[in-house]
Every structure is written in structure tokens, then in C-alpha cells.
Write a structure and sequence with these properties.
14 helices; UDP-n-acetylglucosamine1-carboxyvinyl-transferase, Chain; elongated; about 25% strand; four-stranded mixed β-sheet; single chain; alpha+beta; binds ligand EPZ; about 30% helix; about 425 residues
């Protein structure tokens, strides 16, 4: 899988419709939440992507019995056969840190690998650990592991996150679901995936107030029940296809199974650039007319412009007439795609947390390399626009978070193939 590469012959017009899959970043915490009950939990609209498959296998290692069939998952953890995540499984994604909260809440003990070094920058977990410690969890940290003990169960807390953290809010929410008493979590992240987890936990019997607000109040239960839950659509996949449809010279593209409001920040940036966007119910259509204007954007916690759509926007802005500026406020190493885009002919200058993109630059295909999940999507988008053939190596990165992107783009008319060597 690690030798997978994607071959693209650029400049094909994209038109037609593409259907958005379920949200990867909802699937990860929600599969972990199945640890909070011994009953069966049934999910619909689960994206078949590598990071979700890793989470599923990690849970199987802990004792979960389950079926992952097309986009439906049935999973049950009647008893735990282990409370430790082997290193090789825990390092490749955020799976291990999202298991910590529910596992220690269920079992009173958990040993997870410290999240692996990540290409996009620091992935700190100090707020996760601080909140769990205040809940009465003893946490021991080694170079590779986090060992958590809660011999007397978890206590409710009134905790304020120092900064917004998506998985931090999800982790403490899951732990609080089994804590004794009423927990208040303040300054919570507002990403829709946190709200979707609230919906799942509520369906499992949790009493939670404040969904989609910065203050979540959770009344802990002795146990939770099974549930059936359909995941929200993936807003980052949605935004990626909206940007793909905005690339030069495309006809009308329809994005289906969408929730346009989830990407309002992107849609207003595209309108500023000069892209024609129409939205209704669960659909978005995009038309490119005339020249693209340069813009200034900075990434922010939701509902601000998402860091997970920064790389893809960088690719689009290589075709704007003038100099655009993107400031990356969330992660401290998330411009690695710029080096690869410059190999295709882009003119991007990175100065610490700011990228200046000088357009309009024609792109010509050559072999480039994906460094991380969203960078790989940005490189594929560049290949769609480049003259000739572009080969994106290390395509495993794309498979981590996008369900069959080559197939979905071929459906729109792209000339793109995934090759497993
Ligand atoms: C989630 O990561 C997403 N992943 C990321 O998507 C996304 O980029 C990120 O949120 C921001 O929106 C999942 O949901 C699985 P954070 P997460 O905790 O939760 C600092 C993708 O491409 N921080 O919100 O790990 C941290 O260092 C991925 O799908 C602390 O300082 O991100 C970072 O600078 C990439 N202490 C910032 O906060 C903490 O305890 C945001 O991190 C936690 C975080």
C-alpha cells in the first residue's frame, strides 16, 4: 500500500455529479465510543478509508466483534480482551488518543501509544490529559506510551479548554459520559463532528446539553446502551470537490449528499475569488467563469476557514491573477505541499506560518510526492490542471481520508488512475 501512486493526465473538463461520503473525522471518535457500552452499535455512512479501517482493527484488538460491510459498520464490545494498543497500530492515526477516554472510562485502565509524529506539525494532547487527570485518572507518560488508571472511576469536572481542540473535546465528552455526576466542558471546539458525536452519545442514553455550542454539559450514566447512527457527510471531502470543480475551464459540477452550511467559510472565499457557487438543500453546484481574483485567507477553528482545506485552496490560488496570502494558524508545519506544487511550476513562497501564492502560473506535470493527507489532495487537484502527466507518489496518504477519490474524479471526466505497486 505504501508504494501506491496516482497517475493523472491533466486538463480534462470536469462535469457531472459526485456524492459525498460519511465524515472520516466523525467515524473515528464514534467508533471509539462503541467502547462505552457492551451492546451493539450500528453505523451507516461510514467512509471506507484507511484511517477508519485502522480504528476498526484497533478496536478488534481490544475485543470488539464487528462487521465493516460497504458503508455500514456493526460493532460490539461485550467484554475487553485487552486494554492496550500495540504500538504499530496506534501510531498511524489519531486512533489511539481517541480510544484513551472511552477505554479508561469503561475499564479503569488503558495503555495507548503516544500519537505518532505527524507531518503537519505538533499534535499535542496536553489538554486531553489535563482534563482526564482532573476527572481522577492517574496518567503516566513514557516516550512511547500513555498509561491511564482510574481505580475509583471517573469524577465529573468543570473544565475549560485553554484552546479549541476537536479530539480533545471528543475525548473528554466520551469519558464524561460514564463519569459520576454532571460534567461541564467549556471552550469546546464547534466542528460539526463534535455535534455528531453528541448525537450518537445521546442515542446511546447520554444526557448532554449544549450541542454545537462552546459549553457542553454531560450527566454521566452507569452504563450506555447500543444505538443506530448515520454519520454526517464529510465536509472536508465536500470542500475538496468544490475546489476541484472550481479549477480552470470546468463545466458545471454538482456535489450531492452535501450540507452547504458546513463549508460556508470556503464558499464565501470562492465567491470572493470569482467562482459561481449555488447551494440548495443537500446540493452544491460550482461554475467557473472568467479570471480568478487573489484573496487573503487565514485558517481558524470552526466556523472559520478550515485548516484541512488550506492545501487545496493553495492549489486553486496558483491560477488567480495576482498574489494571494494564506496564514496557517492551527498547525505549525502545514505548507509542505508548496514545495511539490512549485515543482509543477507554481510560485509559492512560505515564510513561517504564511504562504504567498503568486498567480497565474501554468502547471506542467511531473512526479511529485504526497507528504500528508490533505497535501495529497492538493497535489491531485494540481495534476488535474497540469499539462501532461503528473504522478503523485506515496498515494497512501490520500487513501487515509478520501473514499475512492480517483473513481469519483473519473466519474466527473478526469483521466486519473491509482496504481498499487
Ligand atoms: C482534528 O485533529 C482533525 N482530526 C484534524 O483533521 C483537523 O485538522 C484538526 O482537528 C483541526 O480542525 C480528527 O478529527 C481525527 P486539535 P486534532 O486538537 O483534534 C493544539 C485531517 O486532515 N492542541 O483541534 O488532533 C494542536 O497542537 C486531520 O482530517 C494542543 O495544544 O486537532 C493544534 O495545534 C488533520 N493541546 C491545535 O491545538 C491539545 O491537547 C488544534 O488541534 C490538543 C490540541
Amino acid at each position: 500500500m505504501n508504494n501506491a501512486k496516482i497517475v493523472i493526465h491533466g486538463k480534462q473538463k470536469l462535469c457531472g455529479s459526485v456524492r459525498i461520503s460519511g465524515a472520516k473525522n466523525a467515524a473515528l471518535p464514534e467508533l471509539a465510543a462503541s467502547l462505552l457500552t457492551a451492546d451493539e452499535v450500528h453505523f451507516q455512512s461510514v467512509p471506507q478509508v484507511e484511517d477508519v479501517k485502522v480504528m476498526f482493527h484497533v478496536l478488534e484488538n481490544l475485543g470488539a466483534q464487528g462487521i465493516f460491510n460497504a458503508d455500514a459498520v456493526t460493532i460490539q464490545v461485550p467484554t475487553l480482551k485487552s486494554a492496550e494498543i500495540p504500538n504499530e497500530l496506534g501510531k498511524t492515526s489519531r486512533a489511539s488518543i481517541l480510544i484513551l477516554g472511552p477505554l479508561v472510562a469503561r475499564n479503569g485502565y488503558a495503555k495507548v501509544s503516544r500519537p505518532g509524529g505527524c507531518a503537519i506539525g505538533d499534535r499535542k494532547i496536553d489538554f486531553h490529559l489535563q482534563g482526564l487527570r482532573e476527572m481522577g485518572v492517574t496518567i503516566r507518560e513514557t516516550a512511547d506510551h500513555i498509561i491511564a488508571n482510574a481505580d475509583n472511576g471517573l469524577q465529573a469536572i468543570d473544565y475549560t479548554f485553554p484552546n479549541k481542540t476537536v479530539t480533545g473535546a471528543e475525548n473528554l465528552l466520551m469519558a464524561a459520559a460514564l463519569a459520576q455526576g454532571q460534567t461541564i466542558l467549556r471552550n469546546c471546539a464547534l466542528e460539526p463532528e463534535v455535534g455528531d458525536l453528541v448525537d450518537l452519545l445521546t442515542a446511546m442514553g447520554s444526557h448532554i446539553h449544549g450541542k454545537n455550542t462552546e459549553t457542553l454539559t454531560i450527566t454521566g450514566q452507569n452504563r450506555l446502551n447500543g444505538a443506530r447512527h448515520t454519520l454526517i457527510p464529510d465536509r472536508i471531502e465536500m470542500g475538496t470537490y468544490v475546489i476541484a470543480a472550481s479549477l480552470r475551464g470546468n463545466n458545471e459540477v454538482m456535489i450531492e449528499n452535501a450540507i452547504p452550511e458546513y463549508i460556508d467559510s470556503l464558499l464565501s472565499v470562492l465567491t470572493e475569488i470569482g467562482i459561481e457557487v449555488s447551494t440548495w438543500d443537500d446540493k452544491i453546484t460550482v461554475r467557473t467563469r472568467g479570471p480568478l481574483c487573489p484573496v487573503e485567507v487565514e485558517t481558524l477553528p470552526y466556523p472559520g476557514y478550515p485548516t484541512d482545506l488550506q492545501a487545496q485552496l493553495t492549489t486553486l490560488l496558483t491560477q488567480a491573477d495576482g498574489v494571494s496570502k494564506i496564514k496557517e494558524n492551527i498547525f505549525n508545519n502545514r505548507f509542505q505541499h508548496a514545495v511539490e506544487l512549485n515543482k509543477l511550476g507554481a510560485s509559492i513562497q512560505v515564510d513561517r506560518d504564511v504562504a504567498f501564492i503568486k498567480g497565474k502560473t501554468p502547471l506542467s506535470g511531473r512526479t511529485i510526492r504526497a507528504t500528508d493527507l490533505r497535501a495529497s489532495a492538493a497535489l491531485v487537484l494540481a495534476g488535474l490542471m497540469a499539462e501532461g502527466q503528473t504522478v503523485v507518489e506515496n498515494a497512501y496518504q490520500l487513501l487515509r481520508g478520501y473514499e475512492d477519490m480517483p473513481g469519483k474524479l473519473r466519474q466527473l471526466g478526469a483521466n486519473i488512475t491509482l496504481i498499487h505497486e
